[in-house]
Structures are given as structure tokens and as C-alpha cells.
Give the backbone structure.
Amino acid sequence: MDNNENHEGLTSNMEDYLEVILNLQKEQRVARVKDVAQRLNVKMPSVTGAMKGLAEKGFVNYERYSYLTLTEAGEKIAREIGERHKTFYDFLTEVLQLDHETAELDACRLEHATSRKTFEKIKEFINTHRRSI
């Protein structure tokens, strides 16, 4: 994937886990396996397996029965994914005037599948669009 050249082979699902942990920490101050499972609508054993893999890669601090925290590298990726998601969501709702539900689903797909070059152009476009309103 062109947009993830610095994400050390993370899958889009792994990136989603990082993004969700960051969002939970912002909203609730802590993230737990149970919370991640609920947010992503997956089973807790799936989250546990993903956390072990992300911990091995150095992106998550994970210990059984403890809170989940992001490492510096994990937080950096989560923030990048979050920025991509927000930018695509804003583009889809503000420019294309899609409904919230469609924009949310499509932004999640686009954040993983779009090249950095395309993302930067859309980000530039949305900023120009906002200044012209």
C-alpha cells in the first residue's frame, strides 16, 4: 500500500485497532480490550490476538487484564490514520454532501487505500474549498 510505506506492514485492520485505542484514550482516558471489541464490533479474542501482534511490532503496550496503551510509534500511526479519516470524511460530507453514514464508511475505506499523494491533494482541495466559502 502506497500510503503506508512507513507503517511496517500493518494491515488496515491493525491500523483500525491503533486508531480506536487512540480515540478511546481521548474519550475515556483508558482503552480496554472489551472497549475495542465493542467499538469495532469484533470478538474479544480477536482483539487480544491483534494486541499481541501489535505489541510484538512495538506499537501497543499490552498485558493481559490491563489497559491498552500506544507506544510512541503506535500513537504516531494512529494520529496519521485519524487525520486521513477526518480529511476524507470532511471531503465526503462538505464537498460531495454525502450523508453521515455513507461518508463514515467510505472515509474508513479511503484512509487505508489511498496513496499519500492523493491524500495530500484532497487535503489541499478541502482547505481551499473551506477558504472559498
In short: Strands lie at 60-61, 69-70. The longest strand covers residues 60-61. The chain has two domains: 8-75, 77-132. The chain is about 70% helix and 5% strand.
